[in-house]
């Protein structure tokens, strides 16, 4: 049997009475709000009400009137579906009114959405995709311990169902590795998930063994015993290691008709059940908890204004864009707000250059891509600008975390190296061939694919000031520097490298295929054909004006070449931009259409139909075709 924390005598009978009343209010308001909306997760909120009553009354140091207070603790609802409880907490602290709670919850246009988002000033990040809140909390705790160096504590309320997510254990592993004693996970072990019992049900011993195996301190409590909860949270705040409070609770607690009963997840109570439950709980209350504000601290503002001196490259020199990324990352590190994270491939992504110079702002996440992105989201909560790098293929493991980061309105710079068949002999498992499509689909994202070192460095600098999710795709091999060091590369732009007023066809590439297009253009010029070459380095937003000009100059003859699968990448960006043009378009799309193998870069590009010969064939066919 799991060892429970010892009860302390710090709570007087009057304190216990106040906590019971507050917990009853949180339960009643969770029922009232979800019943009023006709949807929500009251049963998941009822089980954790005692935990939150103790936390907000006695342990959460938070100035509710000033959510931007740098000393505030952070409260992350990893079990974001328990939003009725979170919003009831906001009412109990005076942050929102009872009217907003009842008439706003889950309503169109309301900030009290079905799952929390940062549209609410007391919410740091969007949650609701399970297994993400605790990993993000790790990032906030990293900032607190190593960068802000402030005493705020990070509390993450987790559900027992999400303890089956690997990301939870990645989070605990990194919390232990970085000795985040300022982090506490509170696990609401209520036994029931959406469709039935959870994997471990109430086996707190098993949870405890797992938590301790990851090097964190486990504290087991009865999640409805207010004194045990109080003692556990007090112990957690003073611990020397990351803590996990494992609270045995009952789903639907306080409503006997649904307590520990399957089939009530995500369902508001029926009107008659809700009426009886509210009567049993003593009805609505208007308790306002003063809480405990943080101690005064010196405001910390990450320095974002350091002067960036980008590296210079000799024209014609062969430099890999992944190397230019590392050089530019080091340059933007002059700003104290810039931090870097990598997934144990920094010698390949060249993020190691930053790590050597700014070790205090570099966080190695090892082979934990989900935790890497989550930690970056947490770091940006505290005002830092994270740059996250790994192989393009491996970012796909963290795609849901990137998607949720956009909902959190996070500012992240992602770099995916070793993209496309160009990487050569490693084979298809290492080839990012879906990345442009996946990141383009993220709301508000920016997708960049430079072809040389100068443009890569300039785009890295632009990402340092870009809002939202930015993604930079880099190349493994070395290619000639095409641009002068003073050239400008605005996001949303492009570069015309060949062509004039009499162009017969436009060759459009990005990254490595720009070099193939140039080689093809030179061969066509030797045949007497005027050819336009466009470096479409900004894949999203795309330079529609340049594309329209190419259509009109060439009579609509375009060849789009990309080292990517045909769906959702460069070709899709071009076609989407021209979809409403209403002018004739004769477009040939060259992309990787078959499963690649190992080989040299040239062999693989030729086999995929994106090499120089394939471009020549496509261009000649279009030139020969009637307008």
TrEMBL record:
Coiled coil: none
Domain of life: Bacteria
The protein's required cofactors: Mn(2+); Mg(2+); Ca(2+); thiamine diphosphate
Swiss-Prot/TrEMBL keywords: Calcium, Magnesium, Metal-binding, Thiamine pyrophosphate, Transferase
InterPro entries the UniProt entry points to: THDP-binding, Transketo_C/PFOR_II, Transketolase-like, Transketolase-like_Pyr-bd, Transketolase_BS, Transketolase_C, Transketolase_N
Classification via PROSITE patterns: TRANSKETOLASE_2
UniProt domain Transketolase-like pyrimidine-binding: residue ranges: 319-481
SUPFAM superfamilies (UniProt xref): Thiamin diphosphate-binding fold (THDP-binding), TK C-terminal domain-like
Quaternary data: Homodimer.
Recorded family membership: Belongs to the transketolase family.
Protein name, per record: Transketolase
């Amino acid at each position: 049997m799991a060892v429970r924390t010892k009860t302390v005598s710090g709570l007087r009978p009057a304190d216990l009475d106040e906590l019971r009343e507050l917990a009853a209010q949180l339960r009643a308001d969770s029922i009232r709000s979800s019943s009023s909306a006709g949807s929500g997760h009251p049963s998941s909120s009822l089980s954790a009400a005692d935990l939150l009553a103790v936390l907000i009354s006695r342990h959460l140091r938070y100035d509710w009137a000033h959510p931007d207070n740098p000393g505030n603790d952070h409260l992350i609802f990893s079990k974001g579906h328990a939003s009725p409880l979170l919003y009831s907490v906001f009412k109990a602290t005076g942050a929102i009114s009872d009217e907003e709670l009842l008439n706003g919850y889950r309503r169109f246009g309301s900030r009290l959405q079905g799952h929390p988002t940062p549209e609410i000033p007391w919410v740091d990040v969007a949650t609701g995709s399970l297994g993400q809140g605790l990993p993000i909390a790790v990032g906030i705790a990293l900032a607190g311990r190593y960068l802000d160096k402030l005493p705020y504590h990070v509390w993450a309320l987790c559900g027992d169902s999400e303890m089956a997510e690997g990301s939870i254990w990645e989070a605990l592993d990194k919390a232990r590795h970085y000795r985040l004693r300022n982090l506490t996970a509170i696990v609401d072990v209520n036994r029931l998930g959406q469709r039935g019992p959870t994997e471990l049900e109430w086996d707190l011993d098993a949870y405890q063994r797992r938590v301790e195996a990851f090097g964190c301190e486990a504290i087991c409590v009865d999640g409805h015993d207010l004194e045990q909860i109080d003692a556990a949270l007090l112990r957690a705040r003073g611990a020397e290691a990351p803590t996990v409070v494992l609270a045995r609770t009952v789903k639907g607690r306080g409503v006997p008709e649904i307590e520990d009963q399957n089939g009530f997840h995500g369902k508001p109570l029926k009107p008659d059940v809700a009426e009886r439950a509210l009567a049993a709980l003593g009805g609505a209350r208007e308790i306002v908890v003063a809480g405990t504000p943080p101690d005064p601290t010196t405001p910390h503002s990450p320095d974002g204004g350091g002067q960036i001196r980008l590296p210079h490259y000799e024209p014609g020199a062969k430099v890999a864009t992944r190397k230019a990324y590392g050089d530019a990352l080091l340059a933007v590190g002059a700003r104290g707000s810039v931090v870097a994270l990598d997934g144990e491939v920094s010698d390949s992504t060249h993020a190691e250059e930053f790590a050597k110079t700014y070790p205090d702002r570099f966080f190695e996440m090892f082979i934990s891509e989900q935790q890497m992105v989550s930690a970056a989201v947490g770091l940006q909560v505290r005002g830092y600008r994270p740059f996250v790098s790994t192989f393009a293929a491996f970012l796909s493991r963290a795609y849901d975390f990137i998607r949720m980061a956009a909902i959190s309105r996070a500012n992240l710079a992602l770099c995916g190296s070793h993209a496309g068949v160009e990487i050569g002999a490693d084979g298809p498992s290492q080839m990012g061939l879906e990345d442009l499509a996946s990141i383009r689909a993220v709301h508000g994202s920016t997708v960049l694919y430079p072809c040389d070192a100068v443009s890569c460095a300039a785009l890295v600098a632009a990402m340092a000031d870009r809002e939202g999710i930015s993604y930079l795709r880099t190349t493994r091999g070395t290619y000639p520097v095409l641009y002068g060091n003073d050239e400008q590369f605005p996001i949303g732009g492009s570069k015309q490298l060949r062509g004039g007023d009499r162009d017969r066809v436009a060759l459009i590439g990005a990254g490595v295929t720009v070099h193939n297009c140039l080689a093809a253009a030179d061969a066509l010029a030797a045949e007497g054909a005027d050819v336009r070459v466009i470096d479409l380095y900004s894949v999203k937003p795309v330079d529609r004006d340049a594309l329209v000009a190419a259509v009109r100059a060439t009579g609509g003859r375009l060849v789009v070449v990309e080292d990517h699968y045909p769906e959702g990448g460069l070709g899709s960006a071009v076609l989407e931009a021209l979809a409403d043009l209403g002018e004739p378009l004769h477009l040939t799309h060259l992309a990787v259409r078959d499963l690649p193998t190992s080989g040299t870069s040239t062999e693989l590009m030729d086999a995929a139909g994106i090499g120089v010969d394939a471009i020549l064939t496509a261009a000649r066919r279009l030139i020969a075709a009637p307008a």
